[in-house]
Each structure stands twice: as C-alpha cells, then as structure tokens.
Amino acid sequence: MQVIFIGPPGSGKGTQAKRLASTLGIPHISTGDILREAVADRTELGRKAAPIMKEGKLVPDDLMVGIIRDRLAKADARKGFILDGFPRTLVQAEKLDNLVGGGNGSRNLRVLQLLVPDDVIVKRIALRRSCPECGAIYHLETAPPANDLVCDRCGAEVVARPDDTEQAVRKRLESFHRQTLPVATFYKTKSILREVDGVGPVDEVFERIERSLQ
Ligand code: AP5
Q1: Which domains are assigned to the chain?
Q2: 53 pocket-lining for ligand 1 (C-beta < 6 Å)
Q3: pLDDT in tens, 112-165
Q4: Among 24, 147, 184, 208, which lies 20 to 30 A Cα-Cα from 48?
C-alpha cells in the first residue's frame, strides 16, 4: 500500500503516519524529518533548508523531488510507503505521479487529508515537543513524555521545534492553504482522496484512518 498524508501543520500527520507505518510494516517517509536530520548534520542540503524552514516557507521543489526520488528507490519502499509532508505543491504531485507509476498514479495509492481547524492547530503546536534524536512527537498536555522532558524512546531531551514560532506557523498555514490544498484537489479528481476528521483523541483519529483505507 502507498499512502500520502496531507494536512496543515500540526494536524497530526507525523503522529498518525508513524503509527500507520508500524501497523502496516512499511516505511514512514517524512520530508520534514529528512530535512531536520540534514540540518542537524550540517549537510549542504541542511544548510540550504535551515533558513527556509525557520521562516515557515517551502524548500524548492527540485530539491524535494530529488530527495523523494532517492528515498523511494531504496529496497524497503518497494513493498509500500507512507509519505508525510510530500507532495506539498502541484509540481511535486505531478513528479510523484511519474515516480509511482504513470500519469494516472498508482492503483495502490491512497491519499488521506486530515481536517483540523486552525484554532485547534495553534493549540497543538504551542505545546508540541519533539525529540531531536529519534523524532518522537509529544504534546505537553495530551501526550507528555513519562519522565519530565526526557524522550521515552531514546532518553534525549525533548524540545520545541525552531519553526514552531507564531510567525512561522502563520506562514506555514498560509503555504498550506495556497500551495498544498490544490494538491488535495488534484487527488480528488483522481478519486483517491479520503477526507478524515483529525479532531479528537489520537486513537479515535487512527481508527477513522484505518476505516478510510478499507
Ligand atoms: P513538516 O515537518 O512536514 O511540518 P508540517 O507539515 O508543518 O507539519 P508538522 O510536523 O508541524 O505537524 P504534523 O501534522 O506532523 O503534526 P504532529 O503529528 O507533529 O515540514 C517542516 C518544514 O519542512 C516545512 O515548513 C518546509 O519548510 C519543509 N518541508 C517539508 N516537506 C516539504 C516539501 N515537500 N516541500 C517543501 N518544503 C518542505 O502533531 C502536532 C502536535 O499535536 C503534537 O504535539 C502531537 O502530539 C499533537 N497531536 C497530534 N494528534 C493529536 C490529536 N488527535 N489530539 C491532540 N493532540 C494531537
């Protein structure tokens, strides 16, 4: 199965995509995580992406398409994958179509759009903490680490993301509405888009996701 998660910042793409990937036994490919790793490792990609991400803007399409082309060529992606954060523009969606099997897209492809209103998003992001080492996602109110600010999985200190400032979140929401919503329409016209209510406890949202994939 090939699954794409589309949704505004803070809608729960990462939380749900990780869980679905582990249930289905296929890789979770998050372009945000790949970029954050490149920034932490100070690679050339990371140096280019860091200031763009900090401002809440999108990294150029050619860089992102190259990253996804290389990642999907790896052996573990042959049996399926979950894409989280890609495609985010129409150019990226069209390039992905070419990569996964022709102009009509792959028959195994499902696109899930998480619907979450902006006011809920702002509350979620304000209290989000993530692990810079293993990428685990927490929320100080609804899903805190068991032990203060220490990651349950790897023991690193969990932190707020540098692009979770009020100004960057506003910019990311604007990019989502202007550049990514047309991607949802692109998949709607192919009849492979499923809209999922992303509000409610994480377990309930996950059940909705599983039902929408049946
Ligand atoms: P990316 O990392 O993809 O960020 P995003 O799309 O803004 O999404 P987030 O990671 O902020 O949120 P999420 O939907 O994963 O929510 P989460 O599960 O964490 O991209 C970052 C940047 O990289 C971009 O701005 C851009 O610069 C660049 N980039 C990446 N891909 C790109 C591309 N293809 N093209 C160009 N540039 C690209 O949940 C949020 C919080 O809510 C957490 O605290 C969580 O615990 C909590 N939560 C989750 N679900 C629930 C629930 N049901 N109830 C209560 N709390 C919940």
Answers
A1: 2-116+178-212 (3.40.50.300)
A2: yes
A3: 999 999 999 998 999 999 999 999 999 999 999 999 899 999 999 999 999 999
A4: 184
